[in-house]
Write a sequence for this structure.
C-alpha cells in the first residue's frame, strides 16, 4: 500500500431542517460578512434561500447575494464574485446548491487574494497562498465538492474546463438535508449516483491491491449507491434512500475511498472533454465512457476487475476465468447504468454519431496537444484516448 | 435514521517514516513550545522519542518532555502535565504512544485553562471552555483516541474511571507509521483489535435499522479487523496487515461508523468497572463481557444480530430462525475472540471466580448507586448490569 495523507475537516450537519443551523455554523467558523452564492431560481422558489437568509439574520451575520451560477460554472461569474467580495469586505463564502455553486465559491476563495487573474490558477500559471473560508448548503448529491479539495471551472472563451485543488478548498461546514433533494429530477439523480460511484471507482481501480480496509469500504459505498439509487428513482421522496445517497456522495469524494491507493482519474479526464464539447451532464458522460475505458485498461490489473465483479456487482464468478469475470463485472455495471437511464456509449450520450474529427479534437485537448498523459492504472497517451473514445461510439 | 453531526478534522499522516514529519505538522497547526508526553521506556529505547525530538528541533520547535504515562492514565500525571504547561508556557501538546498517552494529553488540554481541578471536569462538575491544541504519534492501534473526541482518565483515589469529551479533543494531526507497531506483543495486538471492533459494534447494535451506508461501512471495517487481525498475529511484521489494523482502528472511532445511528456503549460502561476492579486490559474485558451483553439485549433488535451473523461473521443463516441466526453470530464472534487469545467470560479474564460481592460492587459503581442507567438498545438498570456480569461468569 502507498503512504497517504487523509484530511477531511468539514463539519457535517446532516438531517431534517439542518439548513436552519447555517447562521450558527458561519459564526462558529468566524464569518461575519457572507457572500451567499447560488444557482438558478429553484433555490429561491423552494423557499430555501429565504430560510438560509433568516438563519443568517438570526445569527447576526451580514450578507450579499450572488445568484446565477450555471452547470459547468464559469470563470466570468467567479470574477464577478471576487469583485463583489472585495467591494463588500466579505469574509466568508456560503454556497447554496450543488457542485457547480460550491466549485464557483472555491474559485472565488482562491482568487480573492490572488494578485493576478483567477483563471491563471486553473492554468497552473500561479499559486494561491491565501484563501477565503467557505461553507455550503448542499442541494445536489453528486460532485462531492462539499468535502473535497477540488474545484472545476469552465472558461467560456475556448470552452476550456480546468481544475484546481487545495486543502484550503475543503468546506468548513456542509449542511445536508436529504429533503432538499426530493425535487431533483430522475435524470439528475441518476447522473449524481453515477458521479459518486465513479469518484469511488477512480480510486478503486488502481495498481495497489493491498489496501483491504479501503477497498472494503469502497465496495460497501458502491453497493449502497446501487441499491439506494434504484430505490430513490422509484420513490423520489423516500427520506432514507435520499439520505443514503447524499451521505454516500460525500464519503465517495472526501478521500476515504482512496486511503493507500493511487487514484486513476482517466475516466474523469476523458469525460471533461465530452461535457466540454457536447454540453452533456458530467455523470452521463462518465457512464458513456467508463465501459470503454475499463476494457482498454483492465489488462493492467485483471484480478481487480474480477474482484469488482464479485464484491460490488454480485456476479457469481465461480467457474469463470479472471478475464471472463472482469468482463462480466463491466457488463453488469453497464446494465446498472442502463437501468437508471444512463447512456453507455457516445451515440446514446450525444444523440447522434460522434465524428472522427470530434474524437481527434477531444483527444487533442485531453492530452494538451499530445504533451501530457492521463491515468495511472494504464498511462494513456493521445492515441489511447482517441481509441477509448472510438471504442465507446 | 437519526440526524447526525460528523466532524473528524484530524490531519492523518500515514506511512513509513511518517514520524519524521511531526515537527512540520506541529508548526502547521501553530505550535511553538511543545509538551512531549509519552509512556514507558519502550518509546525511548526504540529510538522513536529521539526521532521525534530531531523532527521538532529541525522545525525549530522548543519542547519539554514528560514521560511515565501508565495504562489507565492517572489524574495525578494529568495534574503534573498541567503544572508543567503553565510553568513552561507550553502552547501545543504532543502525545507519543497509544490511547493512554493521548487521553492524558486531552485531559491536560482541558485542564490547562480550567479554573478548578481537572478531575471536576470528568465528574461533570464543571465545563472546559478553552483547550490546548494537541497532536499525536500513534504507537498502539486500539483506543481510536487519535481521531475521537473522548478521553478516559482514572483517579487513583477511589479507583474511579471517568470520561470527558469535546470536539476540541480531536487531534490536530495523527502520525501513523505501521512499522512502529511491529513490536506490540500478541496479547496487546489482540486487545487492540477487540477494542476497535467494539467501537464499531457499540454503534452498529442500535435500534436504527435504516442507515444502510453506515452499516455497510461498519461491516466492512469489522470484516477487515478479523481477517487482518488473524494475519498480523501470525506475521507481526507484515506491513500491510499492520497498516489495515492501524487505519481500521481510527475509522472505527472517528464517528464514521455511527453516522445516523444511536450508539449503545453499554459494553464499554460495563467493562470500565472490570478494568477498574481487576486492572485487566480494556480489550480483554470487552471480549469477556460482550457475549453476555449481546444475549441479554438481542431481543430488542433480533434481526440486527441476525444481519451481523450473516454480513460480518459470514454465517450461512439460511434455514435458521432470526433468533437462531442471532445466536450463531454471537457464538461466531466468541470463537473469533478465542482464536486471537481473548477471554469470553469473567473467569478466564480474571483467572479466578468473580464473587457475588464483586459483581454487586461493579453494578453499583456502573449505575452510580442505582441512580443512572447505561445502554440504548436496551436500557440497563443496576439489576440488569448485575445479571449481565453474573451471566458472564
Amino acid at each position: 500500500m502507498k503512504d497517504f495523507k487523509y484530511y477531511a475537516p468539514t463539519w457535517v450537519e446532516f438531517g431534517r431542517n439542518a439548513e436552519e443551523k447555517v447562521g450558527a455554523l458561519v459564526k462558529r467558523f468566524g464569518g461575519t460578512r457572507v457572500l451567499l452564492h447560488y444557482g438558478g431560481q429553484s433555490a429561491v422558489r423552494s423557499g430555501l434561500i429565504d430560510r438560509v437568509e433568516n438563519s443568517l439574520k438570526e445569527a447576526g451575520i451580514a450578507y450579499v447575494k450572488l445568484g446565477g451560477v450555471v452547470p459547468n460554472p464559469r470563470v466570468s461569474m467567479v470574477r464577478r464574485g471576487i469583485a463583489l467580495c472585495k467591494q463588500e469586505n466579505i469574509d466568508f463564502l456560503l454556497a447554496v446548491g450543488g457542485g457547480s455553486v460550491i466549485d464557483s465559491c472555491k474559485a472565488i476563495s482562491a482568487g480573492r487574494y490572488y494578485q493576478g487573474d483567477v483563471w491563471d490558477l486553473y492554468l497552473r500559471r500561479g499559486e494561491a497562498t491565501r484563501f477565503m473560508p467557505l461553507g455550503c448548503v448542499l442541494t445536489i448529491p453528486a460532485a462531492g465538492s462539499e468535502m473535497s479539495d477540488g474545484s472545476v471551472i469552465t472558461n467560456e472563451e475556448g470552452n476550456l474546463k480546468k481544475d484546481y485543488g487545495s486543502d484550503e478548498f475543503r468546506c468548513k461546514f456542509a449542511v445536508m438535508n436529504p429533503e432538499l433533494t426530493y425535487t431533483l429530477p430522475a435524470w439528475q439523480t441518476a447522473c449524481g449516483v453515477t458521479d459518486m460511484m465513479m469518484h469511488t471507482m477512480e480510486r478503486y481501480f488502481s495498481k495497489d491491491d493491498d489496501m483491504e480496509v479501503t477497498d472494503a469500504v469502497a465496495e460497501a459505498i458502491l453497493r449502497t449507491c446501487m441499491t439506494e439509487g434504484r430505490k430513490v428513482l422509484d420513490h423520489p421522496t423516500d427520506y432514507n434512500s435520499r439520505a443514503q445517497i447524499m451521505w454516500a456522495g460525500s464519503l465517495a469524494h472526501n478521500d476515504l475511498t482512496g486511503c493507500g491507493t493511487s487514484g486513476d482519474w482517466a475516466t474523469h479526464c476523458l469525460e471533461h472533454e465530452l461535457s466540454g464539447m457536447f454540453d452533456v451532464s458530467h455523470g452521463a458522460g462518465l457512464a458513456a465512457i467508463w465501459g470503454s475505458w475499463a476494457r482498454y485498461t483492465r489488462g493492467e490489473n485483471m484480478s481487480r476487475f474480477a474482484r469488482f465483479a464479485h464484491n460490488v456487482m454480485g456476479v457469481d464468478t465461480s467457474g469463470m476465468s479472471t478475464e471472463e469475470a472482469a468482463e462480466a463485472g463491466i457488463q453488469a455495471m453497464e446494465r446498472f447504468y442502463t437501468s437508471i437511464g444512463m447512456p453507455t456509449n457516445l451515440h446514446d450520450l450525444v444523440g447522434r454519431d460522434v465524428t472522427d474529427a470530434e474524437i481527434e479534437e477531444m483527444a487533442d485537448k485531453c492530452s494538451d496537444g499530445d504533451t501530457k498523459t492521463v491515468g495511472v492504472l494504464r498511462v494513456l497517451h493521445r492515441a489511447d484516448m482517441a481509441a477509448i473514445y472510438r471504442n465507446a461510439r
The interface with chain A takes residues 1-16, 18, 210-214, 216-217, 219-221, 223-224, 227-228, 239-240, 243-244, 247-248, 251, 256, 259-260 of chain B (CB under 8 Å).
